[in-house]
Amino acid sequence: MIDAKKLRVFLYKNSPKGMRVVGNEMTIQAKAINLFKYLQAMQEKQDNIVLNYTNHQWNYFVKDLPDDPENIAFYYRDYVKFDEGYSALEEIPYILKVHNPDFDACPMPNEKLMPWLQEDWNDYNVEKPKIRERIPLAGSNPVVYREFRSVFDSQVMYDRWMEKRNLWRARQLVLEQTKNLFAELFMHRQRLIKEDGDWELLIANGVFQVTEDSSISHPILLKRVEIEFDTERNDIYIRDVDVNSSFYIELFNGISDVDRDAVQNADAENSREQYYPFDRNATKTFFERVVHSVSHKGKYFSNMELAKLNNDAAFKVSWEPMLILRQRPNGMAKMINKIIEKIGETGEVPQHLINILQPGNNFVENSDYTQESTEEKLAAVGGEAIDILLPKEANQEQLDIAKTIEVNDAVVVQGPPGTGKTHTIANLLGHFLAQGKRVLVTSHTNKALKVLKDKVESELQPLCVSVTDDSRKDIESSIAAIANFSEIPAKLEKEIKECDTKRKSIIKQLNETRKKLFQIRNQQCNTIILNGDEFSPIDAAKFLKENRDQLGDVIPGNVYTCEALPVSYGALVKLYDSNQSVSVDEEKQLACKLPDTADIWSDSDFEQAVERYNNNKSIVDNITRQNNWKFTVGDAHINILDINSVSIQFTQDWQEKLLNAKAAVCAIKNYEEWELRVIADGINSIHKASWEQLVCQIKATYNQYAKVQRISFGKEVKFHSFEAARQHRQDYKKLIETDGKISFLKSLFNSSLTEAKTCVSINNAEISSGQDAELVLEYIRFYELENPCKIAWKSLFGEGVDNYSNIEIANKYAQSISKLLCWYNGEYSSIIYKIKASGIPMDDLMNIDPLAADIDNLRKSLIFIRGIVPQIVEGMLAFMEMRSQEKRLEKYYQRMSAGTLTNSTACMDIAGAIKRKDIEGYKKARNTLFALIGKYSLQNRRYETLAKINRYAPEWANAIKNRQGIHGSFTVPENIADAWKWKQLERIVDEINSCDYNTLQNNSMMLAKDYHKATAELAAAKAWYELQKRNFEDAERQCILLDLGQLIKKIGKGTGKNVDRYKKLVREQMSKCQDAVPVWIMPVRKVLETFDPLTMKEPFDIIIVDEASQSDLTALAVTYLGKKVIIVGDDKQVSPLAVGQKEEPMQESADLYISSWLKHKKAIDLRTSLYDIGSSSFTPRMLLEHFRCVPEIIGYSNWLSYDNKIKPLREASSSNLLPAVVNYRVDGHRDGKSKINQVEAKTIVALVQSCMEQPEYTGKTFGVISLLGKEQAEYIQRELFNTIGNIVYEQRQIICGDSANFQGDERDVIFLSMVDSNEGDGVLRLRSDDANSDAYKKRYNVAASRAKDQLWVVNSLDEENSLQAGDLRRGLLSYAKNPQAYKQTVIQIEQQSESPFEEAVAKALVSKGFHIVQQWEVGAYRIDMVAVYKNRKIAIECDGERYHSGEDKILEDMQRQTILERLGWKFIRIRGSEYFADPKNTINRVADLLLNYGIKYEDNFTATPVNRDTELLQRVKQRAAEILNGENVPPKPPVQPPKPPVHPPKQPVQPPKPPVQPPKPTVQLPKPTVQPTKSTVQPPKPTVQPLKPTVQPPKPTVQPPKPPAPKSKQPVQLSQELIKLLESRGVKYKDCRSKGGAFWIIGGNELGHTVSQAAELGFKFRLNAPQNAWYLEDMKKENIKRPTVIEPSRKKETIITILEKRGVAYIDKRQENGNLWIIGGQELKDIVEIAKTIGVYFHFKPEGGRISKHKPAWWAK
Q1: What's the CA gap between 800 and 802, in Å, rounded?
Q2: Is the peptide bond before 142 cis (omega within 30 degrees of 0)?
Q3: 1484-1487, long-range: CB < 8 A, 24+ apart
Q4: Alpha helices, DSSP H only, in 1034-1097?
Q5: How many CB atoms neighbour CB 57 within 10 A?
Q6: Omega of the bond prior to 1540 within 30 degrees of 0, cis?
Q7: 1422 membership: H or E segment, kind and range
Q8: Do 1060 and 1042 contact (CB within 8 A), yes or no?
């Protein structure tokens, strides 16, 4: 039996990667792969491989450039070899420059020739102007004609002139070609701007052709370039961009007989070498290699003409440089293929994609995991949270997004027009960077991304790379900034800690302030709790009043929140006691920061220093007095000793030298005279030799003496006759030999031996041995040596020294003599050296005589050394010691008298004793100071207690500190606890009664600003820290960053021979460190070029897709690159249209890949956007705050698409272009089946011209949107280009396009062209929001929300008679005529709705176009709302609100419905649970039911136009009419132009002077196929009526048109029904018809309901907004006079009289230096405008103020 589990494992392991099936269900990886295969098939259906260059939008050969070097410059960029042996592409300034030239004036003919020429003589299109054969002679009667040929030299004059004209004409034809080329390039540039990212301009070369297939003819080498326009020079440039060239490998896909490997190799070679299309060197050889390698039948040609002539080659590549404009391929299919491969290999599928593949309840709401306090809820409104770092101004929606993405894998954000999507993303980036996350921000187009980086906090911008064009500058600058950032993480951690502490402090203050603001509202009702006791505000006030006298003055000043006393009672006792224990003087001294006791000398130290100073000073004084010397102090710490005009300079650090000199001097003894002589003779070499000889003799003699003494020990030798003994020397030697014995024989014959014995006796006996004989000989030798010594001694010593006595004494002298002979050059020289080294100038002081005897100079020197030098040394040492002690004492003095110590008596006493060197005074002052310092503990305790009190009662603390009144006493005041309680209650009551809410609000606003600043600082610090931390952990990345930084520096300005090599290295290195940049901002197409799913090291943490409603489902591939995704878009705006795509093939792909398992299969088609699939999988968040448009403009989109959920935040007064919405009707006609209305087009051109001439439009940008196709926009673009010129077109940033072109963009002023006209008798086909999958509704929503300041709706339709109810066109026109009526409808819905549920349903149904009446009364019953169409009515009830809850209420409701159904009513019930779960489908269900019941669409507000003319609008209209009529003279400015609300208007832009041109100045551009009709030449009148072709347009009038004169002079009596209606509602009225006026009812928009009821009676009123009143316009029942609007003089009126006349509530505080307040909201705007006319300017305050009881109000000074 087979094990099922083992079988599944086997199948799983052996199935293809990623396609495994578990059980009966596909794995998530298999589903993901199938989904991406479906998307790949979808993309491949959209991709279009162009095989022939002629099939591109535009192509232009370089060889076809006009021969006009003055206006056209073209550069090839060749690969050249430089002298240094290095090859590179040469530098060029640009590829192509085209100047837009002016035509030249035709050469003037001779005056005599002029009359003979026809009128077309100056038309360069005329080759040869015709000559009149004859002309009449002037003054001839009858007329006499003169023949041309009869005039002398006439032909010669003509021929000469024609020579000049022919040259001129030839030049103009060239200029025409140049201008046409310029115009083409300019229009292509507009297309690139308008259809951002969908098109690209290429330079191309190497046209590949297949001989057997003429349809294949396309360049193989392509490179993207850019077009620039210089408005100052009027030049168009085509410049190179920093992108790689590409080999068009797709061209070879369908071609057989080519070597596929060779094609791949060619592609790889170009990727490696980057051949340049316009390089005439390396690129040509590349083309040759390519064509030869792909086929042996291939051949290269130098141009296409030669290639055409050759039929032998099967494949041809021609050198043919050209420009191509084509739709930009996006490479999405390649990206998807890589994703499929990666999922197959790794099985990785991001969680957000899993949630799309397997939808479930996996979304976590913030409310599911957070419980917010009141302070947190208030902070969230401003986008503030302690753990979310949004560095810029924020709101609750942004905060919610940041919190939601933390706990979810995806967030969908609905961003209606102008709701700050870019600002939101920039704010989120700050938070994500602070978390260390890597983020990719992308969008379908560049428009939403171009300004994103500028919106990011400045310190974080280097961490973001914005790649919205083909420049790498931003990448390089960010990489350089990151590489050069050298802060170490530890330092950044410290900065983060400081920033975090600061931010938390601000948050704390904000919470406290907001808490206070919150408490102010309900504190009157709250119980006051103080130190455990409860008080009502009334009881607290009573307590204050009753105890004011006893307790009110005890504690002075204000106190802060502290329920009990700030300190204990015991601490207060000690504090008040310190008033006595620490006197005021002592407190002042203690405040001087007295020195530490360790720094104060002891008595003994001071006494020792003084004594040492005095002793040394005494020595110095004695020496100076005895010797008449002088010690002084010089500059720079130098001491000076003056001795007999010789100055000795010495410093304090000479002590060692002087001591050495002193020791040397002390070593000199007092020499005797003979010693001096020896020393002196030792100087002279001759004398020295004698002494040395003597020493040698003495030493020799002494040595002999020592020998004699050694051998004669114990023996006494006596010479009887020394001389006789000397004669017997030889005999003694013989006796030695005979050992002293003499034989008898020898004694007979040698008597001398016997005599020898008798000459000497030893121990009184004769010589008896040889030793005795030897001893005698030694004695003889000694005496012989001693005798010369005596002679020499006497010779050298002479008289005065003891005579020679014995050899022993002489030997002692000899030792001294040897030393003395060397003493001068030895010891004496050392002594002299040490003395001189000590700085004593001996030579200068001794005055040695060089001619004197050496012994005299020696005596003098020794006298100086022994007598003077010691005194000098002693004096200098004593002076140095004296100075040292003096400085030490001085330094001590300075320390004891420095700074604030001068204010201390004790310190100054001790300083004085130091100065005086008063030992006893010092001891006394020191004891006093120590006693004072001992009181620091008392003072510190006093100050600590005061500090605690000061925190809560600063004035009380100050009184105690300054010992004021009772607080200077030594005892605590009585009842201090009760007094504190009294002060606290007084504080609380004062806060309740007088707290300034506005001040707190201002503080809150300032703190909020500080919060965002601190948040920005913290986010920046954390972001850089996270970056550095990540880079420090990756050594390889850090090295690459450093290398990149160096390479970028080398590139510098991008010039030089090595730049290309450096750039190549940069590109190689850049790919290795993509993850080093935290944030990448780039459109989808750039994402596809930059990131490879297979090679990315790690995915992005978050991907943000902006304008996701414009991206089709293939953009899901981009989200694969991230872990989490934020999808930002709007399903109410333009979505992918899939124009020209067939659904059948896509359905086949869907059936193949996804239909069997994907629950979203109905939603996934060619029209499905990324936003659609995201919003069906994740709960969207909606941005509600609108910032772009003034309220009147965004009101239409708010009503049409957003159920009035959008909150416009921009003030209407912020723009002076009034009215903000203009309905401009013309008598135009749509030209047949085309989508062009020439009258509307020409009118818009004239209106644009007129606006630009008005000062109010200075610097404003313009846009034109066609509501029906692109043809109208392109036609208007051509007309504008030819009318205002390309320079103004560029300066005003004009774009003409459809809604898709403008999504994500904006302009100050937008003109909408409706295009449609009704050429038949009936109404036009309905165009509703249900048509074409609500595509029309989306277009209208986008179109109507692009204008910031003013929106013009130019149309040719009568909405009443040409359009059905519910038609989008009718709704737009009705709104444009009277935006206030819409607003009134919304207000009415809000007022009559009993719950938010009812309000939301009513607004949604009204937006659908149904006529809804709320709170419909049927007898005793009331219905929530009723849908009405003619005589049909359907009841609509909302279930689920509290009003209908409870069993009794439900039963009552059912009974009521049963009764009403019996009367014929039909009910549609809407459950709250159904609506809030899916509002859109719920409303669609109700709408379908209503239509089935016969309730059709019907406008909810009247389309009756009100008088919205302003002086500016009249000027614009009048000038536009003049322009249309051919009056091109600029109008004169008005006498008193209207003042703008804030700034005065700038000077108007002067219109360009018309160039001097021949009759045909306009560049020939492609013309529309439909010719304009004759009836469209004249402009429309301001009163909407069309003008006849032959009549000049009248000037528009300032006043509204007057009605026809009444048939009778006296007005007819009004119907009593009208009077009764007005009186029943309390409406004031005034009948001025008898005076030529009108019948008026007083009031503004609040009378809308009354006016509607009057209309049912047949009385039609029109609102006159400036006068805040309605006048009767038409009557069906009575023939009355139509009113004439008379503006009363406002100069005599005051603002008070105006307010009182109109019944406006006001509060006037101006007499009290306050403001004038009027209570109300936007309904008072008309009054505000009237007030401006008398110089009173009101400012709106939505939250009101204390005076208005916090109701909305306006204030003026």
Answers
A1: 7
A2: yes
A3: 1486/1401, 1486/1405, 1486/1436, 1487/1405, 1487/1408, 1487/1410
A4: 1035-1051, 1059-1070, 1084-1090
A5: 12
A6: no
A7: strand 1421-1429
A8: no
Contact 1217, 1256 (CB under 8 A): yes
| Alpha-carbon Rg for the chain in angstroms | 57
Looking only at the bridges linking them, the beta strands covering 246-247 and 235-240 are unpaired
Collect all residues with Cβ–Cβ distance below 8 Å to 1042 and sequence separation of at least 6. Answer: 483
Q: State which amino acid sits at residue 1339.
A: R
Note the pLDDT of residue 364: 67
User: What are the 10-residue block averages of pLDDT along the chain, 1757 residues in total?
Assistant: 42 42 69 86 81 93 94 90 67 91 92 88 91 85 83 85 93 94 92 84 95 93 94 92 90 88 93 92 93 93 92 93 91 86 89 81 59 74 84 87 89 91 91 92 85 87 84 74 74 87 89 79 71 82 87 88 88 89 85 87 91 90 88 82 85 80 79 79 82 87 87 84 82 82 73 81 84 86 85 77 77 83 82 81 78 78 80 85 88 88 89 91 90 86 90 91 89 89 85 71 84 89 85 72 68 61 66 78 86 87 91 87 92 68 68 73 69 83 90 90 86 88 92 88 95 93 93 93 89 91 90 91 78 77 94 91 85 87 78 84 85 85 88 87 63 82 86 81 89 80 61 92 76 37 37 38 39 38 35 36 39 66 80 72 75 77 70 51 37 70 79 80 80 81 74 81
Q: State how far the Cα of 867 lies from the Cα of 890, in Å rounded to an integer.
A: 35
Half-sphere exposure of 1204 (CA within 13 A, CB side): 22
Rounded-to-integer distance, Cα 621 and Cα 628, Å: 10
**Which residues are 58's β-sheet partners?**
325
Residues 6+ apart with CB under 8 A from 780: 722, 725, 726, 729, 732
Residue 1053 confidence (pLDDT): 57
- Model pLDDT, residue 525: 65
Rounded CA-CA distance 362/1226 in Å is 55
Q: Are 435 and 1026 in contact (CB under 8 A)?
A: yes
Q: What is the pLDDT of residue 319?
A: 96
Q: Give the pair of three-digit tokens for residue 853.
A: 């005897």
The token pair that represents 765 in the structure block: 């006996």
Closest CA to 1403 of 1696, 1685, 1195, 1091: 1195
Helix (H, G, I), strand (E, B) or coil at 199: strand
Could you give the CA distance from residue 1528 to residue 1518 in angstroms, rounded to a whole number?
A: 12
| Secondary structure of 1326-1356 as H, E, C letters | CCCCCCCCCHHHHHHHHHCCCEEEEEEEEEE
Are the CB atoms for 1375 and 1363 separated by under 8 Å? no
**What confidence score (pLDDT) does residue 1666 get?**
55
pLDDT at 729: 83
The string of DSSP letters for 892-935 reads HHHHHTSGGGGG-HHHHHHHHHHHHT-HHHHHHHHHHHHHHHTT
* Nearest-angstrom CA–CA distance, 1265 and 1127: 27
- Return the residue matching tokens 């998530």: 28
Extract the tokens encoding 157: 């004059």
Please name the amino acid found at residue 852.
A
Phi, then psi, of 506 in degrees rounded to 5: -65, -40
Q: How far apart are CA 1199 and CA 1376, in angstroms?
A: 13
Q: Which of 887, 880, 915, 871 is nearest to 616 (CA)?
A: 880
Helix (H, G, I), strand (E, B), or coil: what is residue 328?
coil
Q: 384 is written with which tokens?
A: 């503030």
Answer yes or no: are the C-beta atoms of 500 and 1040 closer than 8 Å: no
Secondary structure of the chain: what % helix, strand, coil (to 5)? Answer: 50, 15, 35
- Please name the helix (run of DSSP H) or strand (run of DSSP E) that holds residue 1412, with its range, or none: strand 1411-1418
Phi and psi angles of residue 613, each rounded to the nearest 5 degrees, phi first? -65, -50
Q: Provide the CB-side half-sphere exposure for 928 (13 A, CA).
A: 17
Q: Is residue 1535 helix, strand or coil?
A: coil
